[in-house]
Amino acid sequence: MQFLQGPDQLTILYENNQQIRRVYMNQKHPDNGKRSWYGHSIGHYEGDTLVIDTIGQVDVTEVDRFGTLHTDALHVVERYRILEDGILEVIFTVEDQGAFTMPWRGVATYIPQNISFPEYICAENNRDTTDDQSFDVPHDLTPDF
Q1: Structure confidence by residue, pLDDT tens digits, 98-120
Q2: H or E element at residue 4
């Protein structure tokens, strides 16, 4: 993951699928914004912590790698900060009254690596690169936590 900071926008570059995400700095969410895969993200700094607030994701995405679904009420807040040795810590809170009985939190840590992003061409070989099979991840349609 790489961050490109501009005065009004932070752009996050992701290694997987070479995706990009735009975070609009020091702004408010639009009233009736258009829904999208990444939603609408706004950000600001609280001291040494970058806070990103996201709403407006389409309801066909998943909130985790287990295929947990959500509704259009999904609201995610991420708090990014750099720890010792350059480790990036992200504490995130997920809220969705239509899918979960209460907000839940998680922590992700990223260790810096001195490598460049590999090229990823999905159209040439539309398969999961970790094995020779592509299949849907099983998921439950009813929240149980």
Answers
A1: 999 999 999 999 998 888 877 76
A2: strand 2-5
